[in-house]
Write a structure and sequence with these properties.
The protein is an alpha/beta fold and 289 residues long. The protein folds into two domains: 137 residues, Rossmann fold; 143 residues, NAD(P)-binding Rossmann-like Domain (Rossmann fold). Helices cover 38% and strands 20% of the residues. It is built from eleven helices and twelve strands. A six-stranded mixed β-sheet has the order 2-1-3-5-6-4. Strands 9-8-7-10-11-12 form a six-stranded parallel β-sheet, with helices on both faces. Helix 1 links the parallel strand 1 and strand 2. Helix 4 packs across helix 6 and helix 4 packs across helix 10. The protein is globular, with a radius of gyration of 19 Å.
Length: 289
């Protein structure tokens, strides 16, 4: 087989050692018997433009970008898709007629994870109830976009620094409001969903504030709680919610599902998120916690 037939893709970040994307894409390449590669590439912010300029000649068909490039890279691309524009971040790129196009698949990963583990999470009656997002960073913007795309009518962003939540609320159309973490006790209890995008309760650091724990214990019992953090898989927040008999969804599926559209673009077939793949990534995560 000549090298020209081998499709090459990458994940690019700085640093990049931690990325689990190669496990996911290598699993699919092997499972479907495709001639392709997916490699980690460490590129410092100062060298990003040079890396992009060389992409065509280096034989890559596309790749993923992660921290710290997700926000900046969009200014260097030929075109970005509607979602990437609204979210303000690009995580997947591909070539179209030698032009580099960027998209965002994080929001699709979130929705697909909810579809898989919380069937009915976007039922018509649930769409009318408020949805709460903890955090106001890049990830929160993706979740907000995903919720609005599914038709959630009222979204409240709750953040340590309220002004950061205000900024997003002002930028997105629709009923999006902001609250500080201190104000969480004043928020509605009959909510449809709560999604954590912060590092609160992650790997034993950043303890959950007491008023947040109290709130989680009072929200409607049919509320669904998702933590997009997956290290550890069962975060403090999910543990508190499970104890309160709430339906919980962990963040690993978002990581797995966000990889699907990129793989399909580069390698030409839609891969399946299997239990075997989940176990493979889980095994790797367990080595680090
Ligand atoms: P990401 O791209 O993953 O969203 P980010 O842009 O750095 O990462 O955003 C992290 C979010 O987590 C922010 O909303 C941050 O709150 P601030 O806007 O106040 O910085 C929130 N966050 C991080 N650490 C936190 C902590 N210990 N307690 C509460 N919120 C925290």
């Amino acid at each position: 087989m000549s090298n020209q037939l081998i499709k090459k893709a990458f994940v690019c970040g700085w640093p990049i050692e931690h990325s689990r994307s190669p496990i996911i894409h290598s699993y699919w390449l092997k499972k479907y018997g495709l001639d392709g590669t997916y490699e980690k590439i460490a590129v410092a912010p100062d060298h990003l433009q040079a890396f992009l300029n060389d992409m065509n000649t280096s034989g890559f068909v596309g790749g993923n970008f992660t921290i710290p490039h997700k926000e900046n890279i969009r200014f260097s691309l030929f075109r970005i898709d509607v979602a990437a524009k609204a979210i303000g971040a690009v995580n997947t790129v591909w070539l179209e007629n030698e032009n580099l196009i960027g998209g965002n698949t994080d929001w699709l990963g979130f929705s697909a994870n909810m579809d898989q583990w919380a069937n009915g999470w976007d039922n018509p009656e649930r769409l009318k109830k408020p949805a709460i997002i903890l955090g106001a960073g890049g990830a929160a913007r993706g979740i907000l976009y995903a919720l609005q795309q599914r038709g959630f009518e009222k979204i409240i962003l709750v953040n340590r620094t309220k002004s950061n939540a205000d900024k997003i609320a002002n930028e997105f159309l629709g009923d999006v409001s902001a609250a500080s973490l201190e104000e969480i006790s004043d928020l509605p209890l009959d909510i449809s969903i709560l999604v954590n995008t912060t590092s609160l309760g992650m790997s034993g650091k950043n303890e959950l504030p007491k008023n947040l724990i109290a709130y989680l214990n009072q929200i409607a019992k049919d509320a669904i709680v998702n933590d997009i953090v997956y290290i550890p898989l069962q975060t403090e927040l999910l543990k508190v919610c499970a104890k309160a008999n709430l339906k919980t969804v962990d963040g690993l599926g978002m990581l797995l599902h966000q990889a699907v559209p990129g793989f399909e673009r580069w390698f030409g077939m839609k891969p399946e998120v299997t239990q075997e793949l989940r176990d493979l990534v889980l095994e790797d995560i367990r080595k680090t916690v």
